[in-house]
Amino acid sequence: MSKKHINTYHFVRIATPFTSIKILLPLKHDKNFREMNRKAILLIAASILSVSVRAGDFDRLYEESSNRVASYTNLVTFGSVNPTWTDSTTFFYYAWDGKDFIYYRVDINAVTKTVVPRDTADSYMRARQQRMVRGDFTGWNGTFGGRSDTGLRSPDNLWECIIRDHNVWVRNRESGELTQLSFDGNEHDGYSQIQWSPDSRYISALRKQEHEQRQILLRNSHPDDQVQPTYRWLDYDKPGDPLPQAAPALFSIGQLKQIPVDPTPWQNQFDLTLGRWSPDSRFFTFEYNQRGHQLYQLVAIETDGTPRILAQEKSATFVYYNDLYRHWMKDGRHILWISERDDWRHLYMIDTSDGSIRQLTKGQWNVREIQFIDENDGFILFYANGFNASKGEDPYNKHLLRLDLNSGKVKDLTPENGHHEIIMNSRHTAFVDNWSRPDQPYKSVVRRTSDGTVILKLQESDASALLESGYTMPEVFHAKGRDGKTDIWGTIFRPANFDSKKKYPVVEYIYSGPHDSYVDKNFLVSNRFSRLVEMGFIVVYIDGMGTDNRSKSFQDVAYRNLKDAGFPDRILWIKAAQKKYPYMDTSNMGIYGYSAGGQNALSALLFFNDFYKVSVALCGCHDNRMDKIWWNEQWMGWPVGPWYSENSNVDNAWRMEGKLFLINGEMDDNVDPASTLQVVSELVRHDKDFEQLYLPGHTHDLGSNYITRRVFRFFYDNCAVK
Question: In terms of domains, do 632 and 696 share one?
Answer without folding.
Answer: yes
